[in-house]
Amino acid sequence: MANTTVTTAANFIPEIWSKEVIAAAEANLVLANLVWRFDADVSAAGDTIHVPNLSDFTAQDKVAGTSTSPQANTESKVDIDIDQHKEITFLLEDIVKTQSSYDLMSKFTGKAGYGIAKAVDSSIAALATGLSQTKGTYNTAITSDVVLDSIELLDLADAPQDNRFFAFRPDVKRDLLDIDRYVSMDFKKSMGVETGMIGELYGIPTYMSTNILKSVDNTSNILAHKDCLALAMQKSPRTQSDYRIEELATQVTVDTIYGVKEMRDDFGVLVKT
Questions:
Q1: Which tens digit of pLDDT belongs to each residue from 11-61?
Q2: What is the DSSP string of the chain?
Q3: What does pTM read for this prediction?
Q4: What's residue 193's pLDDT?
Q5: Which phi and psi (to 5°) does residue 112 adopt?
Q6: 3 in a domain, yes or no?
Q7: I need a surface site. Which of 34, 75, 186, 243 has the fewest CB within 10 A?
């Protein structure tokens, strides 16, 4: 008796490569690991996150013999819309899968993971152009004054010293290394632990990413505190596959759902180069 087995029906059994895609995505995320995350708030459902702001109180003189004066601030909120749905799909025909001496399915899913990571990081990087605080000049090499002036803006905003970061494109790293002071004293070589990290500038972790926005010769680098920009990843990169009998091929789709938002304008600086 001839039975249908998992071997004879192999072309009808979908294969899943989620772990490979997630690993590839995580390995290529730079900015996503540096900003304020709200993933848990929308993991179950929802399309908008309402984040309330808390205003500062002002200390007042207490006058002897008089009552205190209660303060009541009118608070605002910031909304994070979960409006980004990115996908990458490819079709691998049986003949290619059979004749190739490489595991193309694995390699393609890795590339899909990279593409998803690039889309997420690029969405965060694009927020830099909306920052009101700017230093430097487009199409001009970065200088120590630009770096110090940018740091001063965060200091004036009382941004905490920890969880700050610089994010530059690779060509800006080249300009930084041309400044002897950074090479000899203020620019520390990375230990290679964090993705994209290339050292520190005046104690601030510094990262390199090709996802930093560049239009012609205008590069929009970032100095920010973690609370300046936000990412809400509702659906982590997932892989779905199906066999297309009419194509004699396996179709694989990788997608993710997320939203990004500028949260605190005074905690970020657009560093132009």
A1: 665 655 556 666 655 556 789 999 999 989 888 888 888 888 777 788 888
A2: -----TTTTGGGS----HHHHHHHHHHH-SGGGTSEE-GGGGSSS-SEEEEE--PPP---PPPTTS----------EEEEE--EEEEEEEEEEHHHHHH-SS-HHHHHHHHHHHHHHHHHHHHHHHGGGG-S-EEE-TTS---HHHHHHHHHHHHHTT--STTEEEEE-HHHHHHHHTSHHIIIIIBPPP-S-STTEEEEETTEEEEE-TTS-EETTEEEEEEEEGGGEEEEEEEEEEEEEEEETTTTEEEEEEEEEEEEEE--GGGEEEEE-
A3: 0.81
A4: 47
A5: -65, -40
A6: no
A7: 75
Q: Domain check: are 172 and 221 in the same one?
A: yes
In a domain, 59, yes or no: no
Radius of gyration of the chain (CA): 24
The pLDDT, as a whole number, for residue 159 is 94
**Structural domain span for residue 93:** 10-49+76-125+231-262
Task: Yes or no: say if 81 and 259 are a contact pair by the CB < 8 Å rule.
Answer: yes
Residue 65, domain member (yes or no): no
**With 70 as the cut, is the pLDDT of residue 202 above it?**
yes
- When pLDDT is cut at 50, 70 and 90, the band that residue 5 belongs to is low
* In-domain check, residue 243: yes
Q: What is the pLDDT of residues 174-194, one digit of tens each?
A: 788 776 555 555 555 544 445
pLDDT at residue 234 is higher than 60: yes
* Residue 21, both tokens: 């895609």
